[in-house]
Amino acid sequence: MLKLLCKNESDEEQSTISSNWSNLESIIMNISQPCEDMMVACRFAANEYDCSKYFIPIITDEGLCCVFNMLHPKFMFISHIPRSMRNIPERDYEPIDWYAERGYPPDLPNKYYPRRIAGTGESLGLSITLDVEADKYYCSSTNSVGFKLSLHSPNESPNVHETGVLIAPGKETKVRVRPDKTETTQKLRSVDTKYRRCLFHDERQLLYFAHYTQRNCEMECIAKMLLQHCGCISFYMPKIYKNSTICNIRSLHCVEMVRLRKDPTIGSCLDACWPSCYDLTFLVDVFAIPLWSDEFFIENKRVQRYNKTYARKNIAVVNMYFKEYSFRSSIQTEFIGTTDFLSAVGGLMGLFLGFSFISIVELVYYAIIHPIRTLLQFEYTKKPALSEKLIRCDKTTVCRQWSSVQRYKRLRKYLRLRAIYGRANKSTKQRAGYKRLSNNAVKCITNTLKKEQDIRT
Questions:
Q1: What pLDDT is attached to residue 238?
Q2: Digit-coded pLDDT (tens) for 290-341
Q3: Domain-embedded: residue 328
Q4: What is the residue range of the signal peptide feature (predicted)?
Q5: Residue 200's pLDDT is what?
Q6: Contact between 71 and 95 (Cβ < 8 Å)
Q7: Is 320 part of any domain?
Q8: What mean pLDDT is reported for the chain?
Q9: The domain spanning residue 323 has which CATH number?
């Protein structure tokens, strides 16, 4: 098992195949340097603290590590809690649920963690005095002796082996932290994920971790690929299934093939692990200088109790702090919104076409109202034309029969009126009768034309 942890090659005869590899997590905790021995002194926000109460052990790809200001396991994991985090000592601070999209809840207790920074600069940052105990080393994951430091979001698992910063013993190291935060406007929720290329907190549920981050998704992805191709998972991988077995030393070659993606036939699900729409990462600037070499006053009282030779070989002092109290975040939003689009179109049309609101009214008038009005006028003028056509029609049978009837009626009416008024002696009466006769004849003809028109229509 130690050969597996140290990544030493071994043949099958020397490997303990019959060992219970599911207990590898407990073995790592028992053989690794505990946090209370690793950390000699801790200072945060200008106050001294007991390191064992505020740093909790966690199993990573570098073995046993000590983590500060991480989420409580009840908020970090869904079901299975790692054995290294089951017995967390009681603290004076109450744990709360935190993630980058929501931040801190509105109703905060007086003392809580993950804790906010007290201020900027080394005096209000986190200072740790470490003892590497180099004489107790069995192996190292690197070519050196010392520590690895990884800064990560409180709700994600650290990637110590790949992204950790080396801390050398015998030196005082200053780690200047620069936050890098990404935010996304809520308007992008309506945009398809394949276009915005990020996920909101509630858009994907993981199997092991309670919070979605790109790092947590990648760890679960690699665990799934190991189960698919090797039938087991590494000891530090998330237990996405309760019956998952731990890879032994026989599976070391298969594990490395999957982890490093050396086999092109192995499909990868890492492409689906998109960044969070609200993401918080930390960039660091590291500066180191050797510890004292001559007899002079040492500010760190914990280092004073060690002799010069032991301190140069084993003691490391790390000071982590923020350079500035505020920082700038990147906001992802739509490139051209509705308002921007209308403004751009209106500006171009006003520039090249002299466009205005009056132009809109004219466009509506000539596109809709004017054609309708022209059509109505055409229909209205079409009816008199039909009546004239009926009056002048003399070639069809219907028109001749209708004209004959009308002529007969008009003639009979004329003869009757003539008989009535023909007996009048006075010229005035005669003129008046003829005038009335002509008026009545005109009215009769007009009424007849209207009736003919109604019948035809």
A1: 87
A2: 887 665 555 666 677 777 788 888 889 999 999 888 888 888 887 776 777 7
A3: yes
A4: none
A5: 93
A6: yes
A7: yes
A8: 79
A9: 2.60.470.10
- Co-location of 167 and 316 in the same domain: yes
Euclidean distance between the first and final Cα of the chain, in Å? Answer: 105
Each residue of 372-419: pLDDT tens digit?
Answer: 888 888 777 765 554 554 445 444 444 444 455 566 667 667 677 766
Mark whether 317 and 419 lie in a shared domain: no
Regarding whether 446 and 394 lie in a shared domain, the answer is: yes
Orientation angle between helical segments 397-421 and 427-456, nearest 10 degrees: 160
Average pLDDT over residues 39-52: 88
Q: For residues 206 and 179, what is the distance between their CA atoms, to the nearest angstrom?
A: 26
- 8 Å CB contact between 49 and 43: yes
What is the torsional sign of CA 231, 236, 238, 239?
positive
Amino acid in the structure at residue 304: Q
pLDDT value for 76: 92
pLDDT given for residue 398 in this prediction: 46
242: in domain: no
309 with 418, same domain: the answer is: no
**What are the tokens at 27?**
């073995």
Confirm if 131 and 37 have CB atoms less than 8 A apart: yes
In the numeric block, which tokens belong to residue 226? 């190991």
CA distance 418 to 155: 117
3-state secondary structure 201-255: CCCCCCCCECCCCHHHHHHHHHHHHHHHHCCCECCCCCCCCCCCCECCHHHHHHH
Range of the domain at 316: 32-213+276-332
Cα gap 197→217, rounded to integer Å = 15
* Nearest Cα residue to 234 out of 249, 216, 247, 244: 247
Domains contained in the chain, number: 2
Asked if residue 8 is part of any domain, the answer here is no
Q: What is the pLDDT of residue 321?
A: 94
